[in-house]
Amino acid sequence: MADSNTECLTPSEHAEVEALVDQTGAGRLHAAGHILSPLTAEEIFPVVTENEQLVRWMPSLEGGTYDDRPERAPIAPGMTRRLSFGGQADVERIVAVELPRLFAYQIIGGFPIDDHLAVLVVTTLETGGTRVSWYQYFRSPRLTGVLQRRQVRRFVDNGMTALAVLLEGERIEHC
Questions:
Q1: Rg (the chain; Cα; Å)
Q2: Tens digits of residue pLDDT in 71-90
Q3: Which helix (H) or strand (E) is 152 found in, with range?
């Protein structure tokens, strides 16, 4: 699995993610994954945000809906998304959307996780191509925390591996 720090972020992206962590009261960073892709940020962003695309790469995802999104309306902060994972439904609140480079959400129901924040950052590189980074912040209960952190890390690792194939890219360990 890729490093679990934020070394891949530019200084302005780092400041933006840290502001989201502070704003939401998110826990520590426990999982991260990174991909390099030849596709553009504009091509990648729908793949990492739209429910119809998520099922193509997110492990065990069967489908999803937005509770409060008019048809064809853009995704916006404050919207609620429900994702179905083999009998379990996660409820997420969209925290931030900045097309085509940043998408952040919190799990607020379903999967038992505290003070969660996930941030997907899509960065156009000066050298060509695009880097996609997925960060998972949360707090874990003492007794079940080790297992929960492993489960989330495995979920991110499997998701990023599938996403790399879909984006015609490759996983990277370091930026």
A1: 15
A2: 889 999 999 999 999 888 99
A3: helix 145-166
Asked if the structure places residue 47 within a domain, the reply is yes
Task: Please state, in angstroms and as integers, the Cα–Cα distance from residue 87 to each residue in 59, 83, 161, following that order.
Answer: 13, 10, 23
The structural domain count of the chain equals 1
Q: What is the pTM of this model?
A: 0.90
Q: Which residues of 134-166 are buried (b: 16+ CB within 10 A; e: fewer)?
A: bbbbbebeeeeeeebbeebbebbbbbbbebbeb
Residue 42 lies in a domain: yes
Q: Can you tell me the distance from the alpha carbon of 77 to that of 144, in angstroms, rounded to the nearest whole number?
A: 31
